[in-house]
Amino acid sequence: MDTLGAMPGTGPNTGVLRVVRKAAPAHFDQLPTDRTLIMGVLNITPDSFSDGGRFVTDGKVDHELAVKAGLALHQAGADIVDVGGESTRPGATPTKAREERERIITAVQALFTAGALVSVDTRHPETAEAAIAAAPHRDAVLINDVSGLVTDPAMPELVARTGVRVIITHNRDVPETMQDHAVYDDVVAEVLAELDQIRRRYLDAGVAQERIIVDPGIGFAKTAEQSWTLLRHLDRFTADGTRVLLGVSRKGFLGELLADSSGRRPAEGRDAATLALTALAADAGVWAVRVHDVEANLDAVRVIAQLRT
């Protein structure tokens, strides 16, 4: 895929923002249907649990570095690049919508120019609307909202009005306090029921059923054991043909599992464990996995696809 005029830094005036070549825009209907999809993670934040601070230092965004990283995910084979400007890890401090937009919009525009399909990870309708406006068409962009039961009422209205697709995530509260609500009698049944409540808000706003993707929200308002229980029952989420996104890459519950005498395994040491769960997800028929290491996870889903033929 030829989207760069030269490798950044190989000649005069060849910074990555200046050499992105326009490619044919991606379209949702062009995505592979014979395997689980790969969504690559681009967090342009100072405080995300795995890659926070890579592109934001002292409040300043290195847009050129962020664009380069996003294009690398695209060129590595990511079917979708998920761009976020606000950390939603448990306990994270909220980011204002304006600051979030300023962090991500340059990368979002560059990815569209390069022909990438972009998912925008945001709880803010204003940010979602700006990303939709930057897209070449409505089927080049997804909105990935992890708000769950506290979704802003304006988000379903926006999705219905613009006709884009949306990922809805099970969650019970905002990042600062969501872990206070990790209390369930039957976590699988309750997550399924509450996802239906969230889905109903979008349906009632006029969003078509087929444009809604669901995410069980591993780690959002859930303990480690509750997350493992959900993973043991992924077939309950995919049983009716619902498209499911699974986001487990490098998450804290894997760090707890792999802990040793020095403490939890650091985020960058959790990729092999992530691959194991990607294979599990692919075998369960999950629509897409959201991951940091694109190439390795793409290999994993291709292997499972071959075994299922």
What can be said about this structure in brief?
This protein has helices at 16-19, 63-75, 97-113, 125-134, 154-162, 187-205, 224-232, 234-238, 252-257, 271-283, 294-308, and strands at 37-43, 56-57, 60-61, 80-84, 118-121, 141-145, 165-169, 212-215, 245-246, 288-291. The chain is α/β, with parallel strands linked by helices and 309 residues long.
CATH fold-level assignment: TIM Barrel
Strand content range: 5-15%
Mean pLDDT: 92
What is the CATH C-level name? Alpha Beta
Give the termini separation: 28 Å
Q: What is the overall number of helices?
A: 11
Let me know the CATH homologous superfamily. Answer: Dihydropteroate synthase-like
The residue ranges in which pLDDT falls below 50 over 5 or more consecutive positions are: 1-13
Q: Give the radius of gyration.
A: 18 Å
The structure class reads alpha/beta
CATH architecture classification name: Alpha-Beta Barrel
User: What's the arrangement of strands in the largest beta sheet?
Assistant: 8-7-6-5-4-1-10-9
N-to-C SSE string, H for helix and E for strand: HEEEHEHEHEHEHEHHEHHEH
Number of strands: 10
Give the tally of structural domains: 1
Q: In words, what does this structure look like?
A:
It is a single chain. This protein has 309 residues and is α/β, with parallel strands linked by helices. The protein has one domain: Dihydropteroate synthase-like (TIM Barrel). It contains eleven helices and ten strands. The strands form two sheets. The protein has an eight-stranded parallel sheet with strand order 8-7-6-5-4-1-10-9. Helix 4 runs parallel beside helix 5 (154-162). Residues 1-13 have low confidence and may be disordered.
